[in-house]
Amino acid sequence: MSAVPNEAIGPCLPDSAAVVPSAAEALLRQIVDEYRRPLHRFLTRLLLGQQDLAEDLVQETFLRAWRNAQTLAADPSKIAPWLYTVARHVAIDAMRARQARPPEVSLPDLNRVPTTDDEMDRVVSVHAVRSALGKISPEHRAVLLEMYYRGASVAEAAVRLGIPEGTVKSRAYYAVRALHAAIGSTESS
């Protein structure tokens, strides 16, 4: 491995572009070092705790300071008031810009949207049906339990209840009507 002189490591710069910063650059570095944190706290308070926006506005304030470096260098005693005034104006402009735009709408996560099969609705429905079943005649209740709860066909319900199929159909029809009427009176009370 050959030894490389230190001059070959860095970029080759002409003598006129020395690494020594100009007076304006040195002033801006000093301003950033001295005022970055205080400006950030100031803007965070103005923006009611919005840290990210405050960071962006601090950068915007320093960009404007860079653009006006000659003015700031002329009278260093006015740097702090100038920075805070610019920061306040930048914050006001940012808030006005947000108010001028329509509010951002975020779409809900469709995986978290409640489904139509809400558990509470099911519980309320079960309770209403149980209460209403107690209000209809025992014959109607028996037909409804066989056909809807146990899933029996008309013929199976007729065999289990010991009545003709036509009677099962008739009782099922009138039992559903009676159950609807009983549920209606249950909901109103």
Automatic annotation (TrEMBL):
The keyword Transcription regulation applies. Keywords: DNA-binding, Sigma factor, Transcription, Transcription regulation. InterPro entries: RNA_pol_sigma-70-like (IPR039425), RNA_pol_sigma-70_dom (IPR014284), RNA_pol_sigma70_ECF_CS (IPR000838), RNA_pol_sigma70_r2 (IPR007627), RNA_pol_sigma70_r4 (IPR007630), RNA_pol_sigma_r2 (IPR013325), RNA_pol_sigma_r3/r4-like (IPR013324), WH-like_DNA-bd_sf (IPR036388). The keyword DNA-binding applies. It comes from the Bacteria. Signal peptide: none annotated. Residues 32-99, 132-179 form the RNA polymerase sigma-70 region domain. GO terms for molecular function: DNA binding; sigma factor activity. Coiled coil: none annotated. One of its GO terms (biological process) is DNA-templated transcription initiation. Belongs to the sigma-70 factor family. ECF subfamily. This is RNA polymerase sigma factor. It comes from Micromonospora zingiberis.
